[in-house]
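## retry 2 of 3
previous attempt timed out at serialization; input unchanged, resubmitting
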Amino acid sequence: MEAACKKQDKTRCVMMNRLTIAIAAAGWALYGFSALMPRSSNADAQAEIARLHQAAQAAGTEHDALVAQLELFKEANQDLQHLQNRIAAATQELKHLEYLRSRISGEIDVMRPQPSRGSSQALSAPEHPVSSDAAGAVPSKEEVGYAQQALTALGFGPLKADGVFGPGTRRSIEAFQQSRGLPVTGNLEAGTLRALRNSHTAAQP
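## retry succeeded, writing output
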């Protein structure tokens, strides 16, 4: 669109230059006719002067119209820039809302009742995590609980380490995968679990 506007502006500049040349030519013609009036018919000279005067007025009117159109194009470009700024601001607001939704989902997971067995014990890293990235591999409850604990410790929570793979856990895993440059799947795959274990171990004093 900017290229089209520049092309239209260039065309109008060329037309304006031509109109300016035409007005100058009309002025010189008036001067020439004035100098030749003693040798020509007075009536013919007056008629020609009037015609040239009208042509000059028409050229001036067209010049003013082109200037007005150029101003309208400038205003349209300013409106487009304003619209682009509003779109960028809306995109930032959408990202912030997505972050808030993830936080709220994590808090909902924390409020979910814990299972009565072993709920107060801290989970340790599973000795044998998922052994492959094969499709369909399902992490154990122990692995999910450890992942929830690690995600909370790394600032991707809060999550309750209950071993239940809920929507808040999935969104936290997606945020962790994105921050570590992993494929964003939301699943607790072997690569994600290894990265969680390494990051959690490195973050511990």
